């Protein structure tokens, strides 16, 4: 069956409708963001999750790991709930924690947060100046 035969065109609306090949239950959706395994290469940390996803995070995003020796990077501990990697400064030269959730959801970038902070400080300065002028 070719594509033209699969398409039903609604004459009233002019829109095309396609036959659904697979039911929703045939798809797999991420469900378990817990750490299963971790490995490093020269440029990235690769975190395999229990649900099969693999996060590959550039080391340059994490200065403490980027600037550390490869042997020190390997001295992590996986948290009990398997959602964080922890480098304990009593066991290695790195003092950091990496939360998987921080790399799964897009958040406010550092520059945006800094811009917001500067804008808030400027607002405070303006309000302070207005109060002085009102006296």
Q: Can you lay out the helices and strands and say which pair or pack?
A:
Blueprint: H1 3-6, E1 7-9, E2 16-18, E3 35-40, E4 44-49, E5 54-58, H2 63-66, H3 70-73, E6 77-78, E7 84-87, E8 96-99, H4 100-104, H5 110-134
Antiparallel strand pairs: 1-2, 3-4, 4-5, 6-7, 7-8
Pfam families: DUF2442
Protein name: DUF2442 domain-containing protein
Descriptive notes:
There is one protein chain. With 135 residues, the protein is of the alpha+beta class. It has a domain at 35-107: NE0471 N-terminal domain-like. It contains five helices and eight strands; from the N terminus they run H-E-E-E-E-E-H-H-E-E-E-H-H. It has helices at 3-6, 63-66, 70-73, 100-104, 110-134, and strands at residues 7-9, 16-18, 35-40, 44-49, 54-58, 77-78, 84-87, 96-99. The strands form three sheets. Strands 3-4-5 form a three-stranded antiparallel beta sheet.
CATH topology of one domain: NE0471 N-terminal domain-like
Strand residue percentage: 15-25%
- CATH homolog superfamily of one domain: Uncharacterised protein PF10387, DUF2442
The number of E-state strands comes to 8
Under CATH at level 1, the class of one domain stands as Alpha Beta
Uncertain ranges: none
Structural class: alpha+beta
Number of helices: 5
Oligomer: single chain
InterPro entries: DUF2442
Protein name: DUF2442 domain-containing protein
Pfam families: DUF2442
Organism: Pyrinomonas methylaliphatogenes
């Amino acid at each position: 069956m070719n594509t033209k035969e699969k398409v039903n065109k609604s004459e009233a609306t002019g829109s095309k409708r396609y036959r659904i090949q697979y039911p929703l239950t045939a798809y797999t959706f991420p469900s378990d963001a817990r750490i299963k395994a971790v490995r490093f290469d020269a440029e990235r940390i690769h975190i395999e999750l229990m649900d099969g996803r693999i996060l590959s995070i550039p080391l340059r995003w994490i200065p403490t790991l980027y600037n550390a020796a490869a042997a020190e990077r390997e001295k992590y501990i996986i948290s009990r709930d398997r959602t964080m990697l922890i480098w304990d400064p009593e066991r290695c030269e790195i003092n950091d924690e990496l939360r998987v959730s921080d790399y799964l959801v897009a958040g406010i970038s550092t520059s945006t947060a800094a811009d917001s902070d500067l804008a808030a400080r400027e607002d405070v300065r303006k309000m302070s100046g207005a109060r002085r002028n009102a006296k």
